[in-house]
Structure formats: structure tokens, C-alpha cells
Amino acid sequence: MSKVKFCLFASTPDMLQLNFVVKVLTGTPEELAQCAVDWGYDGIEFMPNPEHVPDPGVFGSALRRGGAVMPVVNSGRIAAKGDGSSP
Hints:
Elements: E1 7-11, E2 25-26, H1 29-38, E3 43-46, H2 56-66, E4 69-73, H3 77-81
Parallel strand pairs: 1-2, 1-3, 3-4
């Protein structure tokens, strides 16, 4: 496998509800893989919902079918969701 040159910051659709300061591509694993490749990226930096992490096997299969990779899993969404003390 060649070295990854460009990764697109991505998450699941529920990320939109958090009003996260950084714009993040959202979608299903299939949509994220396809969009990344269509836009000229090699893969995605994925920021999962820590309470509903997608099945790694299903996600990996979707990435392989789409021709993308996921070299980075970002834990920043934990901070975006807060510590649970606010509504």
C-alpha cells in the first residue's frame, strides 16, 4: 500500500447536531469512502461518536470497496460532546 497523502476529516451524520467548530464531512462508511476518493483524498481521519462506534469490520469493508483507508481515528469528539454535565 502506498503512503497516504491526503485525509479528509469525517464522522457519522449525528456530528452535525454538535455544532462542531470544524467542518466535518458526514455520512455512512460507504458515503465517506466514496466521497473521499471522488474528491481526490486517499482516505479519512475518522472522528467516531464514542457512544456509538461503527462496527470496525463493516467500516473496513466499506473503505476497501470505496478504495479509501482510515489511518487516523480521532478522539476529539469526546470533547465536542462535553462531559455530560451540560444539557
